[in-house]
Amino acid sequence: MTVREREVLSLVAEGLPNSAIARRLRLAPKTISNHLSAIFGKLQVTSRADAIARAHDAGLTS
Prior knowledge:
By secondary structure, the protein is mainly α. 71% of the residues lie in helices and 0% in strands. The chain contains four helices and no strands.
């Protein structure tokens, strides 16, 4: 997972919606959606909650 994907996933884990993540990272909302799609594929999950749980289990988030 890229550094940016980890950053996006960390903000998702904080409970932020895509629009807030985009504002915080100064990216387009579509870019955040693209990052989440890549994250979901790499973690083999289909939801934000599953991504957070899988990343936590793998030690990718705190």
